[in-house]
Amino acid sequence: MALEIERKYLLKVSPQQLIEEGTISLKSEQRIEQTYIAMDTDQELRVRRIQDLATGEYEYTHTFKNGVGLAREEVEYSITKVIYDQVVEAFGYIPLTKNRLTAAYGEMIVEIDIYDQVDFIVVEVEFSTMEEADSFVPPSWFGEEISFNKTYSNKAVWKQLQKQQ
Protein backbone atom coordinates (compact mmCIF):
# COMPACT_ATOMS: atom_id res chain seq x y z
CA MET A 1 0.00 0.00 0.00
CA ALA A 2 1.30 3.45 -0.89
CA LEU A 3 1.71 6.01 1.87
CA GLU A 4 0.15 9.43 1.29
CA ILE A 5 1.73 12.20 3.38
CA GLU A 6 0.06 15.58 3.08
CA ARG A 7 -0.62 18.83 4.90
CA LYS A 8 -3.70 20.94 4.23
CA TYR A 9 -4.44 24.61 4.75
CA LEU A 10 -7.29 27.02 4.16
CA LEU A 11 -6.37 29.36 1.33
CA LYS A 12 -6.31 33.05 2.34
CA VAL A 13 -6.40 34.55 -1.18
CA SER A 14 -8.12 33.64 -4.44
CA PRO A 15 -6.31 31.16 -6.67
CA GLN A 16 -6.86 33.51 -9.62
CA GLN A 17 -4.99 36.27 -7.78
CA LEU A 18 -2.06 33.91 -7.13
CA ILE A 19 -1.95 33.00 -10.83
CA GLU A 20 -2.20 36.62 -12.00
CA GLU A 21 0.56 37.72 -9.60
CA GLY A 22 2.81 34.88 -10.78
CA THR A 23 2.97 33.36 -7.29
CA ILE A 24 1.89 30.00 -8.72
CA SER A 25 2.01 28.55 -12.22
CA LEU A 26 -1.08 26.57 -13.20
CA LYS A 27 -0.28 23.07 -14.50
CA SER A 28 -3.76 21.56 -14.80
CA GLU A 29 -7.37 21.92 -13.72
CA GLN A 30 -9.78 19.08 -13.05
CA ARG A 31 -13.45 18.80 -12.24
CA ILE A 32 -13.94 16.16 -9.52
CA GLU A 33 -17.08 14.45 -8.26
CA GLN A 34 -16.49 12.07 -5.37
CA THR A 35 -18.79 9.78 -3.46
CA TYR A 36 -17.96 7.73 -0.40
CA ILE A 37 -19.36 4.22 -0.47
CA ALA A 38 -18.13 3.04 2.92
CA MET A 39 -16.33 4.62 5.85
CA ASP A 40 -15.25 3.90 9.38
CA THR A 41 -13.24 5.92 11.89
CA ASP A 42 -9.91 5.39 10.11
CA GLN A 43 -10.86 3.79 6.78
CA GLU A 44 -12.77 4.91 3.72
CA LEU A 45 -13.77 3.74 0.26
CA ARG A 46 -14.65 6.29 -2.39
CA VAL A 47 -15.19 6.61 -6.11
CA ARG A 48 -14.35 9.62 -8.25
CA ARG A 49 -15.17 10.95 -11.68
CA ILE A 50 -12.36 13.27 -12.75
CA GLN A 51 -12.56 15.44 -15.84
CA ASP A 52 -9.44 17.11 -17.22
CA LEU A 53 -10.79 20.55 -18.12
CA ALA A 54 -8.15 21.14 -20.81
CA THR A 55 -8.91 17.97 -22.78
CA GLY A 56 -12.43 17.12 -21.61
CA GLU A 57 -11.31 13.54 -20.94
CA TYR A 58 -12.70 11.59 -17.99
CA GLU A 59 -11.04 9.22 -15.56
CA TYR A 60 -12.83 7.08 -12.98
CA THR A 61 -11.15 5.83 -9.80
CA HIS A 62 -11.83 3.72 -6.73
CA THR A 63 -9.76 4.53 -3.64
CA PHE A 64 -9.22 2.87 -0.28
CA LYS A 65 -7.60 4.93 2.49
CA ASN A 66 -6.51 3.71 5.89
CA GLY A 67 -5.31 5.81 8.81
CA VAL A 68 -5.67 9.31 10.21
CA GLY A 69 -3.40 12.33 10.39
CA LEU A 70 -0.65 13.44 8.02
CA ALA A 71 0.26 9.96 6.76
CA ARG A 72 -2.32 7.47 5.50
CA GLU A 73 -2.13 4.31 3.46
CA GLU A 74 -3.79 4.65 0.08
CA VAL A 75 -4.67 2.28 -2.74
CA GLU A 76 -6.17 3.82 -5.85
CA TYR A 77 -6.98 2.21 -9.15
CA SER A 78 -8.90 3.00 -12.31
CA ILE A 79 -12.41 1.72 -12.90
CA THR A 80 -14.70 2.00 -15.91
CA LYS A 81 -17.46 4.55 -16.36
CA VAL A 82 -19.97 1.71 -16.21
CA ILE A 83 -18.72 0.58 -12.78
CA TYR A 84 -18.59 4.19 -11.52
CA ASP A 85 -22.16 4.86 -12.67
CA GLN A 86 -23.44 1.61 -11.13
CA VAL A 87 -21.86 2.39 -7.75
CA VAL A 88 -23.11 5.98 -7.64
CA GLU A 89 -26.62 5.05 -8.77
CA ALA A 90 -26.84 2.11 -6.36
CA PHE A 91 -26.29 4.32 -3.34
CA GLY A 92 -28.05 7.51 -4.51
CA TYR A 93 -25.69 9.77 -2.58
CA ILE A 94 -24.98 13.41 -3.39
CA PRO A 95 -21.40 13.67 -4.69
CA LEU A 96 -18.96 16.21 -3.28
CA THR A 97 -17.96 18.43 -6.22
CA LYS A 98 -14.93 20.64 -6.66
CA ASN A 99 -12.42 22.02 -9.10
CA ARG A 100 -8.82 21.08 -8.42
CA LEU A 101 -6.02 23.33 -9.61
CA THR A 102 -2.58 21.71 -9.70
CA ALA A 103 0.11 24.37 -9.70
CA ALA A 104 3.83 24.89 -9.23
CA TYR A 105 5.02 27.11 -6.42
CA GLY A 106 8.75 27.25 -6.99
CA GLU A 107 9.93 23.63 -6.88
CA MET A 108 6.82 22.53 -4.99
CA ILE A 109 3.53 21.24 -6.41
CA VAL A 110 0.37 22.42 -4.65
CA GLU A 111 -3.21 21.31 -5.18
CA ILE A 112 -5.99 23.82 -4.61
CA ASP A 113 -9.53 22.52 -4.14
CA ILE A 114 -12.37 24.96 -4.82
CA TYR A 115 -15.57 23.39 -3.49
CA ASP A 116 -19.08 23.97 -4.82
CA GLN A 117 -21.12 23.06 -1.73
CA VAL A 118 -19.07 24.73 1.02
CA ASP A 119 -17.54 28.17 1.36
CA PHE A 120 -13.83 27.48 1.71
CA ILE A 121 -10.83 26.71 -0.49
CA VAL A 122 -8.15 24.22 0.55
CA VAL A 123 -4.52 24.08 -0.54
CA GLU A 124 -2.58 20.89 0.08
CA VAL A 125 1.01 19.80 -0.30
CA GLU A 126 2.16 16.17 -0.52
CA PHE A 127 5.51 15.02 0.82
CA SER A 128 7.81 12.05 0.28
CA THR A 129 8.68 11.66 3.97
CA MET A 130 7.33 12.60 7.39
CA GLU A 131 10.53 14.59 7.97
CA GLU A 132 9.71 16.78 4.96
CA ALA A 133 6.13 17.25 6.17
CA ASP A 134 7.22 18.10 9.72
CA SER A 135 9.81 20.65 8.58
CA PHE A 136 7.56 22.37 6.02
CA VAL A 137 7.08 26.09 6.57
CA PRO A 138 4.02 27.29 4.65
CA PRO A 139 4.21 30.49 2.60
CA SER A 140 2.35 33.56 3.87
CA TRP A 141 -0.55 33.09 1.43
CA PHE A 142 -1.47 29.77 3.06
CA GLY A 143 -4.05 30.21 5.79
CA GLU A 144 -4.87 28.19 8.88
CA GLU A 145 -3.58 24.62 8.87
CA ILE A 146 -6.43 22.11 8.84
CA SER A 147 -4.47 18.86 8.48
CA PHE A 148 -5.80 17.65 11.83
CA ASN A 149 -9.17 19.41 11.77
CA LYS A 150 -11.71 16.78 10.72
CA THR A 151 -14.38 19.45 10.13
CA TYR A 152 -12.68 20.30 6.82
CA SER A 153 -12.01 16.74 5.65
CA ASN A 154 -13.65 15.70 2.38
CA LYS A 155 -15.27 12.83 4.24
CA ALA A 156 -16.86 15.15 6.85
CA VAL A 157 -18.07 17.64 4.22
CA TRP A 158 -19.54 14.79 2.18
CA LYS A 159 -21.35 13.42 5.26
CA GLN A 160 -22.95 16.85 5.83
CA LEU A 161 -24.19 16.87 2.22
CA GLN A 162 -25.99 13.57 2.77
CA LYS A 163 -27.84 15.01 5.78
CA GLN A 164 -29.24 17.74 3.51
CA GLN A 165 -31.07 15.23 1.29
Automatic annotation (TrEMBL):
Name of protein: CYTH domain-containing protein
Source taxonomy: Bacteria, Bacillati, Bacillota, Bacilli, Bacillales
Signal peptide: none
One Pfam family this sequence matches: CYTH
Species, as recorded: Paenibacillus septentrionalis
InterPro entries in alphabetical order: CYTH-like_dom_sf (IPR033469), CYTH_domain (IPR023577), NeuTTM/CthTTM-like (IPR012042)
Domain CYTH, residue spans: 2-164
Entry coiled-coil feature ranges: none
